[in-house]
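Priority: low. Protein: Type I inositol polyphosphate 5-phosphatase 8. Input follows.
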Amino acid sequence: MGMKRGKMFKSSWPRAVARKWLNFPADKQAFPSDFVAQERRKSCSDLDSCAVVPEDIGVERRSIEKTRGLRVNPSCSESLDLRMLVGTWNVGGKAPNEGLSLRDWLNSPTPIDIYVLGFQEIVPLNAGNVLGAEDSGPAAQWLSLIHQALNTDGIGSPTSNNQQQAPQKPRQSFSDLLALEDDNWSGETGMCTPCNKPMRRRQYCLAASKQMVGIFLCVWVEADLYKHVLNLKISSVGRGVMGFLGNKGSVSISMTLHGTSFCFVCTHLTSGEKEGDELKRNSDVSEILKKTRFSHSCRATSGAHPLPPETILDHDKVVWLGDLNYRLSTGCGETYELLRNNDWQALLEKDQLKLEQRAGRVFKGWEEGRIEFAPTYKYITNSDHYVALTSNSKPSKEKRRTPAWCDRILWRGVGMKQLWYVRGECRFSDHRPVYSLFSLQVDSAATNSIKPSINAALPSLCAAAKIQAEELLLKAETIDTSLQ
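Result:
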């Protein structure tokens, strides 16, 4: 058996390397997901949205939201008010250990509907990983760790005891978050105030995940929302060695939820703090926007049914996260003095990303929250000390990089509001994780408008859709906890 497995590996390795070197579009490859119908999305007859729930087995929308904890915007009966937590973390080429806790990163004082988690350097960026076959082992470990945190530890659940631990000061924006929460919800007790009944523990499904060398992106959706996710697509763009290999670049996931299109872009841009390196990072952003494409098996449309988004900017709501690698345009002596005084605002005046954005050279029209936390890079691993400020650090082991806000989260789109933007304090790598909570307004009525055009285009879909919908509803109730 061992020899057979070895032969299979040897035969598949050149194929994987060839795909990498020829830069085949990633959205034509399979990707890990809990989505049971993923293998059926192969033909035009599926219309890229085969997870259609026929009305005769559907459940009334308001009753689902009331029993499952989704918030309904009182000003609009057809609008859902969702919560999305976005996190980015450069883990420095280290696989997670068993004792690593994601509680600081994933915990929230409010129930979360969608988790978008991006990693950089999940494998060391050496020649073997950049030029050779993909090492998917660390990605599987991260998925397992996240799955355990969300579905076993109950971090995303309103009834979890973890919810009761408030984040440490200073995080002034938390007051804004709590003020925005539904008056009928008590986050401290995990109870629904009008009926005084405990809410059930939330469960999460892996909508999609994708790795490109060290860049890894995964999207998790609360189980009852999960059956409304359609048009899952991925696209990867390499911007590393020779301008196209995957040690730098982007992994993007596109999906539609209740008729609203989302795009999540996880990036690791060109590194370096020499003069002019910021222009290379600007070029990376431009090329990623230009080359990212979400191909669909059927581009035809019928009636009012809209075409699925093809580019990043075609989507209704977009989040760009990752190690963007923008540094500080200031002298070392001045930087160190401002760091010792915790004068973040003065340092941010020299932040390359903000300078380039204000000049209109990158991310024009995108938003980023106010940064009220210390630079996230570069730390001595397992320490709270920056490498550049430590006199006894050894340059041979630790590159002496000036501290900077390399790890960022930006967004664009109507109906998105950032509730907080903070960093975690895990010492696992030389970067600190960054995460942000968003409030999302989603028009659930758009889902109903899609059904007539699908039925008109495919009159024979009903029977197959009903079988599939029953499978999805069963899955949503039982939650298969095994990773795909």
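Residues 79-150+202-296+309-443 form a domain with the Deoxyribonuclease I; Chain A fold (CATH 3.60.10.10). The chain has a mean pLDDT of 75.
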